[in-house]
């Protein structure tokens, strides 16, 4: 009883003491002010640094990634900031390198994808007075921030990031296309007009059977013949297909449902299904 009473008195007293500690010496011991003091120039005040961060934070260019329910990572034009429940880390982008140190994957995720991977990232400041800190985010979030950082997060060779859903879909799509009969072309194959990197290697050629007349009323409209030349590589057709399927009704079912959707020729708009994408090869002489 006595101990409980003492505890109820001691905890608020300790809390008040802590708050007084934060407030004295111009709040220089406050956990949010501490990281800013490293960047205070002589004769100036930490409030100038805070104001600079505030201005950048209001910009549309900042990225804000929630790390947990109570912490987040913010990258503004010049600052990298981690805000947690009881403190804050702030370092200028030019004074810091970000390195991925480990990854771990889970089979279930809240975003509906079948696998989610987290990356641990270490922020290593080049200034001795700034504290090193670490945080973890999903590989998807990492890809999102990479292009917005002054120096992208370095990913050492021994760490392999999970391919994106689209990259994985391209692999599955290619596998299915290879099972369709080869379409031989007499002229030489040209460069893909989509990526300008790979050789064009697929022909959209209708192979699926027409819908029986009794089912015509309920079946989707039949596929159409595409008369375009061999213009695209398989990866470009797969990405085009995925973009269309993800935007349509198939989007909810994830990459598995995308295969059951149908694509349309990027040039002539002819509708085609998975059976109609044939690998194109030069005719053997
Ligand atoms: Zn291509
Ligand atoms: Zn076409
Ligand atoms: Zn078809």
TrEMBL record:
It is a multi-pass membrane protein. Transmembrane segments: none annotated. InterPro entries: TM129 (IPR018801). GO terms for biological process: protein ubiquitination. It comes from the Eukaryota. Keywords: Membrane, Transmembrane, Transmembrane helix. It is found in: Membrane. Its main location: membrane. One of its GO terms (molecular function) is ubiquitin protein ligase activity. Pfam families: Tmpp129. The keyword Chloroplast does not apply. This is (apollo) hypothetical protein.
